[in-house]
Amino acid sequence: MPETRLPTRTLYNADCPVCNAEICHYADYAEGEALPLAFDDLNSTDLAAWGVTEDEAARLLHVLHEGRLYKGLDAFLILWEQMPRYRWMARIGRLPVIRPLASAAYTHILARIIYTRHVRRRAKRQAQPLG
Fold it and tell me: What is the pLDDT of residues 29-58, one digit of tens each?
C-alpha cells in the first residue's frame, strides 16, 4: 500500500507583498517538484482549523507538519527542510549560534516590520470610501 503523507501546510498572508512573493516562489518550486506542500492564504482560510487568530497568523509564518504547528523561524526551518533546494538553509538555521540570532531577528525585527505594514495597509483599505 502506498504511503499517504499529509502535505506540509503553510499559512501565510497573501496581502503582504513580501510574504506573497516568497511563498509564491516556494509554491511554484513545490509544484514543479511535485512536493507534498500546500499553501493557505490567511485571508481566505478557516483560521479556526489552524487554531490561530487572524492577528496571530499575520504576525508570523505558521507551518503545520505531521500534526504539529510551528511558527516563526521554526516554521521556516520545517518548510525549508521539505524542499531539497532549501535544505541547506534549514541546516544553517539550526546551528546553535545561528538559530537564536535568526529567530530573534525574524521575530523582533523583520516580522514586526512586515506586520506593521500589514496593519497600515488594512487601515488604509478600511478608510477608503466605498464606491
Answer: 999 999 999 999 999 999 999 999 999 999
